[in-house]
Design a protein that fits this description.
Blueprint (H helix, E strand, L loop, with lengths): L1 H9 L1 H20 L16 H13 L4 E7 L6 H15 L4 E5 L5 E6 L2 E6 L11 H7 L14 E8 L7 H15 L10 E3 L1 H35 L2 H24 L11 H25 L4 H11 L1 H16 L7 H29 L5 H6 L16 H18 L18 H13 L3 E8 L9 H15 L10 H8 L8 H14 L1 H5 L2 E2 L4 E8 L4 H18 L5 E5 L1 H35 L2 H10 L1 H13 L11 H25 L4 H28 L7 H34 L3 H8 L2
Antiparallel strand pairs: 1-5, 1-6, 2-5, 3-4, 7-9, 7-10, 8-9
Length: about 750
């Protein structure tokens, strides 16, 4: 640290110039950071379900649907049919739209003198549609799919173009085009409800942009108020803001230059890095100003600060980085990306706290802040609690008991309905549309025959019918559409139990409506498709449903056949098991890594165990809050334990280091603890409150996982503060009384 102090005092201007140049380059990268809704980034790395879904999209095209539904007095009134036709035609003109399914685009098959022929269900002359209502409500393709059973709601399913999972650009352009169409005077009064994954993705992006616009200035305001309360001068607050801004700029600038977009998970990086950088800056500034108030020169104050606080900042950054790095074990791409750039962000924060900030401090008139500094002598009184270890023991025991009761109550869920507030427009749209239409989310089942020769036979149609009948028994699924429905619609009198009659009907149907047949049959590889829609459900229920579909397929399909559910529903349901496994693995690695850091830093297994014991309180609090407040484990909250563990041990390290240095100066254990509390306690308390306030801003998010993330981290940090001020002093004093070698070694090295 002496070399570092000479660098910042003697060559600080050069260092600041280099930092400014690098910041300018990274600012260009910061402006290039994009946003992605690609489902691959929030799904499982190497997931077989993801691979199945990718294959499905390449075979059949994108299953992205934008569902529009609006209420009418009578869906079959000529005026309403005319307006539906105009809306359908307008949507079909959008280049990003492959097809629009509506009452106006449905075809039916009639038999004339020369055989069967296809014609639109809705005639050109809308006044000549006497039997339309009956024909539509009897059709499995129409009732509860394109028109509600009571004839009071019309629905359009807009299928987007594309054969890739990442369809973000197409989604955005299609939604913009739909908005323009719906804004036209002839459609202005419709007020349609919109649903589907593109709508969900857009709303999610809007929420994140709004949250960032709110949280960034709010977090900066909180840091300004916190540092203003501590230093009572604007200059230290300004320097803290510089460290924060540089940390976020460098981290996101690297993301921009590396072409890594922001997503649902990495959107948490900016507020997280802000509060972490603020904590480092507060410790350095407080120590420096303390030395100035004792009469040191700027150079001496810098040297003393870097010797006293520098190693602690390095070790706290290491433990925080260990917590973030452990997220690499979670097999979700966005979580791994978050962990990687969080580690880079912590490294940037450390660099700016130990290089950029000292280089600025020794060139800034901070003596005025030093004259106003007051020691919080009352912190020394907390040392009295250490003489009563039963307080600490009681606190740990109660925390562990609450955690033990709460852990079985923690649920895992990735249900979309859990992402937004109850009254959010997208939740309302799903509720209304599902009430009328029974299911919004596409849920596809591919039937895989034993050979291509058995693809277009009467037996294959019977297999499809049996599978479809089983799906109809599942409450969360719509009846679905299949090749069998198409054949029976084309030839309503066909004997559905006679394989030969079905095969002849299929041959004729393919001759009349080949494009319709191709929607349900794929020749290479041979596949038969059943398209259904699912209601919103938890990932646990999705897993049950998928297992049910597969097992029933084995029971009722011909030998050698299989049923393969695919789409976003299976992809997200598979995440449940990985979320739990990833949580346990990442948290276990974080605990192990932090224990090793404690061992290296404190050079005593018993002291390391004391430090970990103090941090059992916040970990137990975290479990208790999740269990008793029904906060579920999802793609965002899965990161909380590892992140919190990496953050909360920082104050433990600062207090342990200060305690050891007091002993090294020859102080008694009581005076060493008092010194640790008085020197490090101010920054520990203020930095903890700044962290809590910064993360508390996340609780205002309209995206519930982000709000839950903020709540959980706040609770963990507050509990960690209590553990560090109550449990840690008692444990350290108890260990010292039993002559811990690590403490004696620290004294010998003085």
């Amino acid at each position: 640290m002496d070399s570092l102090s000479r660098l910042v005092t003697q060559h600080g201007r050069i260092a600041l110039v280099l930092v400014a140049i690098l910041s300018g380059l990274l600012a260009i990268g910061y402006l290039r950071v994009a946003w992605t809704n690609d489902p691959e980034v929030i799904t499982l790395e190497g997931s077989d379900e993801l691979e199945n879904y990718r294959d499905f999209v390449q075979r059949w095209g994108s299953d992205d649907l934008i569902i529009l539904g609006y209420e009418v007095d009578d869906a079959f009134a000529p005026a309403e049919l005319a307006r539906l036709r105009d809306l359908t035609d307008a949507l079909l003109e959008l280049p990003e739209v492959r097809w629009v399914s509506s009452l106006d685009t449905v075809s039916t098959v009639d038999v004339g003198p020369f055989g069967p022929f296809s014609r639109p269900l809705v005639p050109d002359d809308l006044d000549d549609a006497e039997d339309l209502r009956t024909r539509a409500l009897e059709s499995p393709f129409v009732r509860d799919s394109l028109v509600s059973g009571d004839g009071r709601m019309l629905l359009l399913a807009v299928q987007l173009a594309g054969n890739e999972l990442d369809n973000s650009d197409t989604e955005q352009k299609a939604l913009a085009g739909i908005d323009e169409i719906l804004a036209r005077s002839e459609f202005a009064e419709l007020a349609p409800l919109a649903a589907g994954s593109p709508v969900f993705n857009r709303e999610l992006a809007v929420l994140n942009q709004r949250d960032n616009a709110i949280f960034t200035p709010l977090a900066l305001l909180i840091v300004t108020l916190g540092t203003g309360l501590l230093f009572r001068r604007p200059l230290p607050s300004f320097l803290s803001l510089l460290v924060i801004g540089a940390t976020v700029l460098w981290t996101q600038g690297l993301m921009g230059w590396l072409g890594v977009p922001m997503n649902i998970t990495t959107s948490l990086l900016p507020p997280l890095l802000m509060v972490i950088a603020a904590a480092d800056a507060i410790h350095v500034l407080d120590c420096y100003i303390h030395r100035l108030s004792d009469g040191d020169s700027r150079e001496d104050a810098i040297a003393w600060t870097l010797r006293e606080i520098g190693p602690s900042c390095v070790w706290t950054s290491v433990t925080t980085a260990v917590g973030f790095a452990s997220l690499g074990l979670v097999k979700i791409s966005s979580v791994q990306t978050f962990g990687l750039f969080a580690v880079l962000g912590v490294t940037c924060a450390l660099f700016h706290a130990l290089v950029t900030l000292p280089a600025l401090m020794c060139r800034m008139p901070l003596e005025a802040a030093a004259t106003l500094r007051t020691d919080w002598a009352w912190l020394g009184s907390l040392n009295g609690l250490a003489r009563r270890p039963y307080w600490a023991a009681s606190l740990v025991a109660v925390s562990l008991a609450l955690a033990a009761a709460a852990i079985p109550r923690v649920e895992v869920a990735t249900h979309d309905g859990e992402f937004f507030a109850e009254q959010h427009p997208i939740n309302r749209a799903y509720r209304v549309l599902e009430h009328h239409m029974r299911g919004i989310t596409p849920f596809e089942i591919e039937l895989v025959p034993d050979s291509a020769q058995n693809l277009r036979t009467g037996a294959s149609l019977l297999a499809v019918r049996r599978m479809q009948d089983e799906l109809a028994k599942i409450p969360e699924l719509s009846r679905g559409h299949s090749l069998m429905d198409l054949v029976e619609t084309a030839y309503p009198g066909v004997d559905s139990e006679d394989p030969r009659a079905l095969e002849r009907a299929l041959f004729l149907t393919q001759a009349v409506a080949p494009s319709e047949v191709e929607r349900f049959v794929h020749d290479s590889p041979p596949r038969l498709r059943i398209s259904t829609r699912a209601e919103g459900m938890t990932s646990a229920r999705s897993e049950e449903l998928i297992a049910m579909v597969r097992s029933r397929g084995q029971e009722i399909l011909p030998a050698g056949w299989s049923a393969r559910p695919t789409g976003l529903v299976p992809v997200f349901s598979q995440m449940e098991q990985y979320l739990v496994e990833g949580q346990l693995a990442s948290y276990g690695v974080a605990i192990l890594g932090i224990t090793l850091v404690f061992l290296v830093l404190l050079r005593s297994l018993r002291l390391a165990l004391v430090a970990l014991l103090a941090n059992l309180v916040p970990v137990a609090c975290l479990a208790a809050v999740m269990g008793f407040s029904s906060i579920r484990l999802d793609v965002v909250t899965v990161m909380v334990a590892s992140i919190a563990m990496g953050i909360i041990v920082d104050d433990t390290i600062h207090l342990c280091r200060a305690f050891q240095r007091g002993l090294a100066l020859g102080l008694s254990e009581s005076h060493a603890m008092r010194r640790a509390l008085e020197i490090a306690g101010r920054a520990v308390i203020v930095s903890s409150l700044v962290l809590v306030s910064g993360f508390a801003a996340l609780t205002l998010s309209g995206f519930k996982p982000t709000a839950h993330f903020g709540t959980l981290v706040c609770c963990a940090i507050l509990a960690a503060l209590v553990g560090d001020l109550v449990v840690l002093p008692a444990g350290l004093r108890l260990m010292h009384r039993t002559r811990v070698p690590g403490l004696e070694l620290a004294a010998e090295e003085s």
